[in-house]
Write a structure and sequence with these properties.
This protein has about 325 residues and is an alpha/beta fold. Helices cover about 45% and strands about 20% of the residues. The protein has two domains: about 40-130 and about 260-325, D-Maltodextrin-Binding Protein, domain 2 (3-Layer(aba) Sandwich), CATH 3.40.190.150; about 135-250, Periplasmic binding protein-like II (D-Maltodextrin-Binding Protein, domain 2), CATH 3.40.190.10. The protein contains 13 helices and eleven strands. The strands form two sheets. A six-stranded mixed sheet has the order 2-1-3-10-4-11, sandwiched between helices. The N and C termini lie far apart (about 95 Å).
Length: about 325
């Protein structure tokens, strides 16, 4: 009789363990975030060597290195038409779970300047990863040691000084127009395909200045080839060495601020599950030590944002960009 009771107890316990295990497996399946099972095409709507390209090529191996995904991420540059090539490509990949695009401010400026049939609303917002500063740079051999000295000189000789920048009617030209309006200068704006090329042109003395992002000129700065005159923001960059660069307001008394998006979008019509999965994947990337070091080395401002807050920020940024471009007569007529 005792043996029979013991057998029944053992069977009951075993059944309970099995049920708990099955429930746990089901619960785990229900809560597991989506992740890609095929290689991800990581599109860059800009040329090689610029801030967006540098960042995408830095991020892509981190997914496997940190065991965030098991599949590779393949960077593809689609810079034609001031980035329109990349945006239209992703717009046309509706429902594709293995395609994403890194965005900069040409997300807003390109359709406003060209009339290309595209809006950021045509894609699926994933996350804002960071914000990027702009710095007024000159060649290290330039006689101008401060932003005030340089801008005063530019004002005295309208059209003589060349300001290099990425693309036409994009963020670099918007900032150049802001400088012209605020200081009474008249730069000769010279467009290039990417920020990396711009800084090389500055090193070669083919242009007089640029408002490149930190990552686009940092290697030349450390090599002693270029000189930063001012940060185009209301606050200094709170990082070692970078914090020695004054703001434009400190250097000239004129307060001009502009920060650029470093964000991620997916194609239209991907599921909420896929969208949430990508949010989680990129959030994990921003929590790695590799990412934190990159933020410091290349002077980006950590600013992760997703969901409704990201959409609200995009709406506000879109409105601000349109206003600035209207003031600079940069909108397509």
């Amino acid at each position: 009789m005792k043996m029979y009771r013991m057998s029944r107890i053992c069977l009951s316990v075993a059944a309970m363990v099995l049920i708990v295990g099955i429930v746990g497996i089901c619960a785990g399946s229900a809560t597991a975030a989506w992740a890609p099972t095929k290689p991800v095409e990581f599109n860059v709507p800009a040329g090689t060597g610029g801030g967006a390209d540098i960042l995408a090529r830095f991020i892509s191996p981190l997914f496997q290195k940190n065991k965030i995904t098991t599949v590779p991420w393949i960077v593809v540059n689609r810079s034609g038409g001031a980035g329109a090539e990349g945006f239209l490509y992703v717009k046309g990949k509706a429902g594709d779970e293995n395609t994403v695009i890194i965005t900069l401010d040409n997300l807003f400026t390109t359709p406003l300047a060209t009339g290309v049939p595209f809006s950021w609303k045509d894609m699926t917002p994933v996350a804002r990863l960071a914000l990027d500063w702009f710095i007024l740079w000159v060649n290290a051999d330039s006689p101008y040691k401060t932003a005030k000295e340089y801008l005063d000189a530019v004002k005295k000789e309208p059209g003589k000084f060349k300001m290099g920048g990425t693309g036409t009617k994009q963020e670099d030209q918007i900032i150049t127009v802001q400088l012209d309006h605020s200081f009474g200068t008249k730069f000769a704006y010279v467009p290039f395909k990417g920020g990396g090329e711009v800084c090389v042109e500055l090193v070669g003395k083919h242009i007089d200045s640029t408002v490149n992002n930190p990552s686009e000129c940092v290697s030349h700065w450390r090599a002693g080839k270029v000189r930063p005159l001012a940060v185009i923001d209301s606050q200094r960059i709170p990082l070692p060495e970078w914090d020695k660069i004054p703001t434009l307001k400190e250097a000239t008394g004129m307060d001009i601020s502009y920060l650029m998006l470093r964000g991620i979008f997916g194609p239209p019509k991907i599921s909420k599950e896929v969208q949430a999965g990508y949010v989680e994947l990129f959030k994990k990337v921003t929590e790695t030590e590799d990412w934190k070091k990159y933020m410091s080395d290349f002077a980006l401002k950590p600013a992760f944002l997703a969901g409704d807050d990201y959409v609200k920020w995009l709406q506000e940024k879109d409105t601000l960009t349109k206003d600035l471009m209207a003031k600079g007569d940069l909108l397509k007529k």
